[in-house]
Amino acid sequence: MTLAQRQAASTRSATTRWRRLLPHATVAAGVLAATSYVWAVDPNRPGHYPVCPTYALAGIYCPGCGMLRATHDLTHLDVAGAMQRNPLAVPLYLGVVVLFGLWVRAAWRGEQLRWDPPRWMPALLGVSFVVLTVARNVPGWTWLSPA
Questions:
Q1: What is the Cα–Cα distance from 74 to 58, expressed in whole angstroms?
Q2: In angstroms, rounded to a whole number, what is the distance separating the alpha carbons of residues 101 and 11?
Q3: Residues 42-63, buried b or exposed e (16+ Cβ, 10 A)?
């Protein structure tokens, strides 16, 4: 293979690599735009966001209640406030960031993302959601309410 052929192959490889990352960049841009909106528009002020459907229909706090406020707090670097709004927000966001990083790395290498979660993980998430839902709705336990 001549030097010109190697350079052409290298250029094609780099172009293909960047092209493979286009969906990842699109997802990142969408998440950045949505997060920027939540950073700019305070969910603590009524009228900007819809009410949680579970809270509106059943009158109970679901595991997702407080996620917008937690996201707003995190974008303002208030981790304690985010944990108060929704204690699952920080670990869930960290997990999403790690998975996104693994997805980008796999695409960069030209591989498929193969992630087989441990068998206990879905059960742990389900139990965490149920425990949080029950604990948030115990009368008098206002420390877990997202308000």
A1: 28
A2: 25
A3: ebeeeeeeeebeeeeeeeebbb
Q: Kindly report the pTM of this predicted structure.
A: 0.79
Phi, psi of 139 (to 5 degrees): -60, 135
Quote the tokens at residue 110. Answer: 């030209």
Give the distance, in angstroms, between the CA of residue 111 and the centroid of all CA atoms in the same chain: 23
- Please tell me whether residue 86 adopts helix, strand or coil conformation: coil
Which of the 8 DSSP states describes residue 66?
T
Number of residues in the chain: 147
51 pLDDT more than 70: yes
CA angle 117/25/70 to nearest 5° reads 65
- Lowest mean pLDDT across 1-5, 31-35, 57-61, 64-68: 1-5
CA distance 53 to 112: 36
How confident is the model over 14-25, as pLDDT tens digits?
Answer: 677 888 889 999
Domain boundaries, the chain: 21-144
